[in-house]
Backbone:
């Protein structure tokens, strides 16, 4: 596996030149585009890594997987009255459907849906940012995980589309808390900095129940979460990714893609900052495609 990951890395790294790191968040535009990592964790606890696997990067929308997992634990069924489980076929930050579909976002992995999930998590929990970070520390078994305050500030300065979504949700009666406070918490979740190794470790609960105190570690909702990853995990490229790669996955505009293979029993995170026009990492997608082909997905 180790030499195979190194071969994949050598093959796909040049593909990064075809894209650019996210430009609309200035702190992400400054990230070194040549960074690259793959980290693979097996259900049995073996770890294989290559490249910059211990360099923290901005998890961005990968946080939506973990906020949803928490909300399924903490909020349960009422969550699904506020957000649907359908692919949107639209860009991740689009608010068009929100207007025509009465303020109920298509799924929890587009921005509007994740803002509803954030609102649900915040309810009666004033320190949700600390709570979420602590859950991630427990899942990844790593106390060093922190928010990147520079990325957070950068998103606060440029996050008007997300504030627009939050105010629309509020106007349609689908936001309980203050729209500005909810988006600030959402920006914090997105600004969490984690390495590929930490993310792959944190995702193991999706293929095998884990010990520990993290709320979602028992993996009670793992199969449902994988279904939503499969259908909505890469925004309006989810169908293409399912065809090309085949693993349930979640991407972020920091250039990370976190995927799981329940049949073979591993979680894997690939990272390369340059993105395609959908906002998904080009080299990370290709790395996962080669891995999937090799491991019989
Ligand atoms: N696709 C993403 O990773 C988007 C997350 C980003 N924080 C945003 O709200 O635009």
Residues:
């Amino acid at each position: 596996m180790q030499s195979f990951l190194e071969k994949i890395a050598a093959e796909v790294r040049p593909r990064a030149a075809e894209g650019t790191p996210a430009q609309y968040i200035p702190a992400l535009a400054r990230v070194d585009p040549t960074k690259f990592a793959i980290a693979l964790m097996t259900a049995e606890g073996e770890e294989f890594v290559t490249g910059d696997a211990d360099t923290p990067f901005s998890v961005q929308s990968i946080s939506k997987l973990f906020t949803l997992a928490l909300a399924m634990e903490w909020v349960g069924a009422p969550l699904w009255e506020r957000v649907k489980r359908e692919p949107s076929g639209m860009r991740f930050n689009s608010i068009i459907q929100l207007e025509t579909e009465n303020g109920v976002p298509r799924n929890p992995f587009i921005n509007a849906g994740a803002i509803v999930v954030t609102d649900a998590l915040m309810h009666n929990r004033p320190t949700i940012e600390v709570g979420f970070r602590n859950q991630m520390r427990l899942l990844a078994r790593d106390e060093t995980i922190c928010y990147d305050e520079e990325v957070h500030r950068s998103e606060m300065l440029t996050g008007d589309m997300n504030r627009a979504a939050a105010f629309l949700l509020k106007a349609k009666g689908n936001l309980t808390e203050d729209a500005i406070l909810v988006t600030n918490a959402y920006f914090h979740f997105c600004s969490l900095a984690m390495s590929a190794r930490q993310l792959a470790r944190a995702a193991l609960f999706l293929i095998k129940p884990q010990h520990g105190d993290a709320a979602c570690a028992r993996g009670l909702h793992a199969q449902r979460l994988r279904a939503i990853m499969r259908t909505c995990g890469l925004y309006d490229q989810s169908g293409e990714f399912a065809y090309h790669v085949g693993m349930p996955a979640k991407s972020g505009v920091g250039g990370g893609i976190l995927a799981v293979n329940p049949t073979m029993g591993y979680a894997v995170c690939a990272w390369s900052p340059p993105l395609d026009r959908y906002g998904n990492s080009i080299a990370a997608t290709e790395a996962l495609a080669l891995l999937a082909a090799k491991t019989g997905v």
User: Anything to note?
Assistant: The chain has a mean pLDDT of 96.
